[in-house]
Design a protein that fits this description.
Helices cover about 85% and strands about 0% of the residues. It has one domain. Helix 3 packs antiparallel against helix 9 and helix 5 packs antiparallel against helix 8. It is built from 14 helices and no strands. The protein is mainly α. It is globular.
């Protein structure tokens, strides 16, 4: 029964993220750096309020646990936590830019290939096993990426950057076990805010007073940042990286629907072929994982 809560958390997180482009497009007159700065600021304030108001004792317990670790283990935890914050910053910034300045389908494609990237990194870094049919799917995924690159190499570059940054984030947090996820998330968002202030002049520049913008970014912080991130991190406590990768498809599928039906984005013939190939690849890739996990879900 407990595993079902983790599956439900992951599904809810990706459902929420699927509708994120609708909100971002409503503030696309603001630069991506400015949107991200206030997204992180409001998220940090919310997390600080939660940690100080409801989780003081747990925060002290986690700090004591960190101090009790051997120096090498302590450095590893700190490195994984801070690298997670840096990866989130990169992922969020590029995603916001792509949705508002390029197109939604490019952002969507990144999360189609992200589960495959996540599983490959899980194989390399976490020694999670894959079977022959999954490697065949990876080859097909690579072919799809080549076709997308032929159509527009810059869009493919954006997709790969989003995919790899989020896949590395998931893998790093899969390895970073033993600490409360909300506390870890708070530290990561604080580090992201630190990074944004270092590059404030380049990413934000002059701030324009716009109450509507602040209300929407506050909504982004609560509904599209803190809530789904916590749900996703909670799910990682019991679900492996490959399974999270399958559930991640909910996000791009909703994104694609929004791109084509709401914003009337189109696709070239080469892109359609590429999407077809990756659809086949994803079916092949996920079949062994779905078959293996179906018995667990029924428990």
């Amino acid at each position: 029964m407990d595993i079902k809560k983790h599956y439900a958390s992951a599904v809810a997180a990706f459902l929420v993220w699927g509708f994120f482009p609708l909100v971002l497009r409503s503030i696309n007159t603001h630069p991506a750096g400015e949107i991200l700065y206030f997204r992180i600021l409001f998220s940090l304030l919310l997390l600080v309020a939660i940690l100080l108001g409801f989780m003081r004792d747990r925060t002290k317990e986690n700090l004591a646990r960190l101090k009790s670790l051997a120096p090498q283990a302590r450095r590893t935890v700190v490195a994984l936590t801070l690298s997670g914050g840096a990866l989130l910053t990169i992922n969020w910034l590029v995603f916001i830019y792509v949705v508002n300045e390029v197109n939604i389908k490019t952002a969507s494609f990144s999360y189609l290939i992200c589960p495959v990237v996540t599983a490959v990194l899980g194989y390399v870094l976490l020694k999670e096993k894959m079977v022959f049919v999954q490697w065949l799917a990876i080859v097909l995924c690579a072919i799809s990426c080549v076709l997308m690159g032929i159509n527009n190499i810059s869009e493919l570059g954006y997709s790969l950057l989003i995919a790899f940054s989020y896949a590395l984030y998931l893998i790093s947090q899969r390895k970073n076990q033993g600490f409360n996820r909300m506390i870890v998330l708070g530290i990561q968002v604080f580090f992201a805010f630190f990074i944004m202030n270092i590059f404030f002049g380049q990413l934000v520049g002059e701030i324009v007073i716009d109450i509507r913008f602040y209300v929407i970014t506050l909504c982004v912080a609560i509904v599209f940042t803190v809530l789904p991130l916590f749900l996703n991190l909670y799910a990682l406590n019991k679900i492996n990286a490959a399974t999270i990768g399958i559930l991640m498809y909910i996000n791009p599928l909703i994104n694609f629907i929004i791109a084509f039906l709401v914003f009337n984005e189109g696709a070239s013939a080469i892109q359609i072929v590429g999407y077809g190939i990756i659809a086949i690849a994803l079916v092949l890739f996920n079949y062994p994982v779905l078959k293996r996990n179906s018995a667990i879900v029924r428990i």
